């Protein structure tokens, strides 16, 4: 059923208070007006709108607002005193609803509602109903635009562009048009209209270049003040040294994740857990996963999820996960997941509820969200999270071997416009035994500073000096890394 029909049914049920949480005020008022017109033939009921600035005003016919009823208490007393039917839409009434006098007045109106057929519609971005009034309320959620409605919105925006630019016609890339329709899912009618217009009016065309901007704008609309971060820069796997087995694994599953018809019989991949030594490329691998799948990358910050108020942490997590669902297809990167979901040693009521919320979402989600979780210490993670079925695979990212160190050196030198033929890569690879990728990069950076200070071009000798002066993590934390390797052996899949 469409939204108008659903709203009409609720109003005909004579529920005293109808609660509508929506940012699209204009569209909701238009919908209420259309319902009023549709009911006119059988049981016409006048429609009123109240605002704190204008007071009470008829919406179904053109009449001046009643400024005398601009105060919340005055308008409620007026509604209680009226002996005729009416639907009263109170806009942005949420700050006043907890007042004891207002609660009593609303309750009085509710108790006389069936006799007089009076209904109050509370329309705001968010409405919290006092417990005294809960039994008198029904909530209405406006359905978001369907695929066909989104198609019509894009067509309408294209017609408006043609009208504003006589002689011009919107150029459409069919694949980009299909992706635009899909990527606009999860937004309100007004937001869908705005983003569609922006995509078309920038250059008079619908192309693949419009999609990143649409996804970024969509994320900003959905995640106001949330714990999700939109990662603007994703990496190519060519920029990642090593991880050959992980690259192959992801490449095999890319068609299934993207929903290619050739692999329709295969299950879509759910996600991976990357365990490994710090600085060995886990975060870069998460970014590269989004790059190889060709989808946006969202990063969940558990530090921003946790809140001192009871229930707020779980709410923030649910909202973040809901946003990722709406942003799909996408990659959800949870960096250092052990810091957000403690194991048995650090359990609290909150961490247990967070774990339960996250596991339920992982089990029930239907959206194209590929989870990449990274961890430095798997021993702190609860067994419920790491058992088979939660993630498709657990990969271990170890310190790079000589061949991989060679490629990492080549990548970092090439990224800084250093000609590779000038360097003894084999010698440098030998010298960096036990170094992580991050430590190799830092050695290159430090050597560049040293060479610049001497007004010399970067050479192998500069790099060897910096490498010799570095104490890598494999030395500083040798025991921890050895224990991690021992645990990972036979339990995880090596990335190389």
Give the arrangement of secondary structure elements.
Layout lengths: L2 H10 L4 E5 L3 H19 L3 E5 L3 E4 L13 H10 L4 E6 L8 H17 L1 E7 L12 E3 L7 H18 L6 E2 L1 H10 L5 H13 L3 E2 L4 H12 L5 E4 L12 H15 L12 E6 L5 H12 L3 E4 L1 H4 L6 H16 L2 E5 L14 H16 L4 E7 L7 H4 L6 E5 L4 H14 L9 H7 L5 H17 L6 H10 L3 H4 L1 H11 L4 E2 L2
Parallel strand pairs: 1-5, 1-6, 2-4, 4-5, 7-8, 10-13, 10-14, 11-12, 12-13, 14-15
Antiparallel strand pairs: 2-3, 9-11
Mean of the pLDDT scores?
85
What structural category characterises the helix and strand content? alpha/beta
Question: How would the global form be characterised?
Answer: elongated
Compute the number of structural domains.
4
What is the CA–CA distance across the termini?
Answer: 53 Å
Strand order of the largest sheet: 9-11-12-13-10-14-15
The description of the largest β-sheet is:
7 strands, mixed
Question: Overview of this structure, please?
Answer:
The chain is of the alpha/beta class and 496 residues long. The chain folds into four domains: 3-139, 3-Layer(aba) Sandwich (Rossmann fold); 147-222; 237-397, P-loop containing nucleotide triphosphate hydrolases (Rossmann fold, 3-Layer(aba) Sandwich); 402-476, Helicase, Ruva Protein, domain 3 (Orthogonal Bundle), CATH 1.10.8. The protein is 48% helix and 14% strand. It has a seven-stranded mixed β-sheet, with helices on both faces. It is elongated, with a radius of gyration of 30 Å. The two termini are 53 Å apart.
């Amino acid at each position: 059923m469409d939204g108008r029909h659903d709203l009409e049914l609720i109003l005909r049920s004579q529920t005293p208070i109808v609660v509508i949480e929506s940012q699209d005020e204009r569209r909701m008022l238009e919908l209420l007006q259309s319902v009023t017109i549709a009911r006119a033939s059988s049981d016409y009921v006048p429609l009123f709108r109240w605002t704190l600035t204008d007071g009470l005003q008829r919406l179904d016919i053109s009449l001046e607002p009643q400024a005398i009823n601009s105060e919340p208490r005055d308008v409620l007393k007026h509604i209680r005193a009226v002996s005729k039917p009416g639907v009263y839409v109170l806009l942005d009434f949420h700050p006043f609803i907890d007042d004891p006098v207002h609660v009593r007045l609303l309750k009085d109106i509710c108790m006389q509602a069936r006799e007089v057929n009076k209904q109050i519609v509370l329309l705001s971005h968010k409405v919290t109903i006092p417990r005294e009034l809960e039994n008198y309320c029904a909530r209405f959620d406006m359905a978001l635009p369907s695929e066909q409605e989104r198609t019509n919105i894009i067509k309408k925006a294209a017609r408006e562009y043609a009208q504003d630019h006589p002689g011009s016609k919107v150029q459409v890339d069919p694949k980009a048009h299909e992706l635009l329709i899909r990527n606009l899912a999860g937004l309100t009618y007004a937001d869908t209209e705005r983003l569609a217009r922006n995509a078309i009016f920038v250059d008079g065309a619908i192309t693949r270049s419009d999609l990143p901007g649409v996804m970024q704008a969509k994320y900003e609309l959905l995640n106001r003040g949330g714990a999700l971060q939109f990662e603007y820069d994703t990496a190519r796997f060519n920029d990642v040294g090593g991880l050959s087995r992980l690259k192959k694994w992801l490449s095999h599953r890319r068609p299934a994740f993207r929903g290619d018809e050739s692999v329709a019989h295969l299950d879509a991949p759910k996600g991976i857990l990357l365990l490994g030594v710090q600085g060995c490329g886990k975060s870069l691998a998460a970014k590269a996963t989004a790059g190889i799948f060709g989808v946006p990358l969202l990063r969940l910050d558990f530090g921003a999820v946790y809140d001192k108020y009871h229930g707020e942490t779980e709410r923030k997590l649910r909202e973040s996960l809901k946003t990722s669902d709406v942003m799909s297809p996408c990659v959800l990167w949870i960096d250092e997941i052990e810091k957000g979901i403690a194991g048995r040693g650090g359990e609290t009521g909150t961490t247990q509820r967070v774990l339960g919320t996250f596991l339920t979402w992982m089990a029930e989600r239907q959206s194209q969200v590929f989870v990449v979780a990274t961890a430095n210490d798997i021993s702190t993670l609860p067994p419920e999270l790491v058992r088979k079925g939660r993630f498709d695979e657990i990969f271990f990212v170890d310190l790079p071997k000589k061949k991989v160190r060679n490629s990492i050196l080549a990548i970092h030198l090439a990224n800084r416009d250093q000609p590779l033929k000038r360097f003894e890569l084999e010698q440098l690879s030998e010298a960096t035994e036990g170094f992580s990728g991050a430590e190799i990069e830092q050695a290159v950076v430090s050597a560049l500073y040293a060479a610049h200070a001497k007004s010399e071009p970067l050479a192998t000798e500069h790099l060897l000096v910096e490498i010799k002066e570095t104490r890598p993590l494999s030395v500083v934390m040798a025991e921890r890394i050895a224990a991690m390797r021992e645990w990972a052996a036979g339990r995880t899949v090596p990335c190389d």
